[in-house]
Amino acid sequence: MEHVETLTRYVTHFVDQLVYSGVEHVVISPGSRSTPLAMTFAEHNGIEHWVHLDERSAAFFALGMAKEQQKPVALVCTSGTAAANYYPAVVEAYYSRVPLLVLTADRPHELRDVGAPQAINQIKMFGNYVNWYQDLALPEPGLHMYARRQAARAVDESLAPHPAPVHLNLPFREPLIPDFSLPGLWREEGKVIPRSSKGINSLSAEQAESFIERCKPLKRGLIVVGPQMDENLADEVTRLASRLGVPVLADPLSQLRTGDHDKRNIIENYDALLKSETIQEQAVPDYILRFGAMPISKAYLKWVQRNEDTVDHYIVDSHQSYREPAGIAAQFIETDPVEFCRQLSSQLPEGDERNEWLSLWQGMNKTAKDEMLKEPEDPLNEGHAVVFLADALPERSNLFVGNSMPIRDVDSFFMATPKDVRVMANRGANGIDGVVSTALGSAISGRRTTLLLGDVSFFHDLNGLWMAKSKNIPLTIVVINNNGGGIFSYLPQVNHPDHFEELFGTPVNIDFAQTVGMYGGIHTKVDSWDAYRKALMESYTDEGLSVIEVVTNREDHVAFHKQKWKSVEEAISNRGVD
Description:
Rossmann fold, 578 residues, alpha/beta, single chain, 39% helix, 6-stranded parallel sheet, globular
């Protein structure tokens, strides 16, 4: 069998098995050595291919698709440093539990480590940030079923023990162009690897009953839901909270602040509340039952650490893990969170349990909400930029949030709403790189997407805008431009003015209007709240890229937030909450 036929059968069976195993999208970074993969993906009518010129942005674009759809997405590049540009997105995907199939083409073994051009050591180059790695065999006659097995296993490994990237390194010899006119390619009768079947991990009836017996007598319970993407959890966890009579501290990425589920027990202002030492002391629970990752709120983390010895902590996770950065002695419960809530709810009386503990939290939450949402008397500020954005968001849409200050402002100012809005962010490694591309990837599902981010994050991924122009992906971007890194103003570095601006403030000083125009977008710089609201509404009628620039003052940002937290504490004190 000649080389071209061998190569073609090997790669077509590999790609076809990925499609059969459920992969629907592939993002391709152009290059030569990856020609067999790129052409085969483009030829297969069962998968949609996306081409991105910048590898770093391409990887984050794939991450966004996989995050939004909760399905593996393939990512293809040529040999050499192209794969190194995938590294930041691979790290983020690993820590945020997003399945990616990273397929790096490589030189054949005889061209490795001999000074051949565009050849680097790609063996296990992503280290421990993948669930599985394989350096695949070179295409040889009769290895098409081997290729299928590797493809099928790659999909399985990307989903267990928890969703994460896998890395397959595929060496190819020249010539690299497949011949799709050959007979017997693609799927042959009985020649596919069957999909794996996965059941639900649940507690035994005895384990569930034991947990209820332990917690039910304790009246001061607390459910906490951190960042997570399972939309089925909202109904079940709020039903459990209602039957237990406990508050639910809902992180903005918990998917609990939005949607039509019962929100009577939802506490969205807990970060502002826990800034007060008085409230911290009044609101200590008997136990905390947490779902999802650790919440964004630093005030919550410090509060948990402060009460480690007096509060029982339980962390429910569908995968074996130790996601407890507070360093407390928590008990991990490895089970499906939705099924766990159902099991416990079935052993509790139907109806709503109301008590003084729940009323305390509900009253404090309402008071805090009233203070946080007071009509702004100041000029444009980050907090009310979130408030008015939440009002304007379309039904059935996505809100993607940048790190540093934007996600914290969403935590503070995005209140519960019945709207169907998914709120997402890259909170695995918490980086500011690739945010534009990740948001664009999340937008390809058809849900109108809004990205809220700062000027430094926007600058970091301007190349990501190319995909919006190339594929005409509708996206509204709200850029909070305070000309630098606003989050550093909250840190001790601000007390060293001789070096602060250069090393930490990092003013960008870029006219974003010209950049947005280069990528075919509509740029609007607003100077009032009326102009901001108008720009938001107009952006949602446009089918392309709209960038709204909200210019704020970095120096005023800290004072604004501290005043809000102080007003919350004073309002609760004046109302005599005890």
